[in-house]
Amino acid sequence: MSIVKEEAIKIIRELPEECTFTDIMAEFYFRQKVEQGLKDIEEGRVISQEEVRKRMAKWAQSIGQ
């Protein structure tokens, strides 16, 4: 069995018995986004906290807040 399938089965087994298909998909989506974020960090695709603040201020200003 492939590593991807094994990981998918592990994730599903960790969820509560009463979970829905939507819950399963949400968990897969969340984990994929976390993995992508970690990969971005490893590859240097990050911005500083100061840059985030500047972008948020600019965005807030553009919507009139």
Description of the molecule:
With about 60 residues, the protein is mainly alpha-helical. The chain has one domain (about 5-60). The protein contains three helices and no strands. It has helices at about 5-15, 20-40, 50-60. The N and C termini lie far apart (about 55 Å). The mean pLDDT is about 95.
Mean pLDDT: 96
In DSSP terms (H or I, runs of 4 or more residues), the helix count works out at 3
**Which structural class do you get from the secondary structure elements?**
mainly alpha
* Relative strand content: under 5%
Q: What is the molecular shape?
A: elongated
State the total count of DSSP E strands.
0
Note poorly predicted spans. Answer: none
End-to-end separation in angstroms reads: 53 Å
Element pattern in H and E = HHH
Main β-sheet description: none
- What integer value in Å does the Rg equal? 18 Å
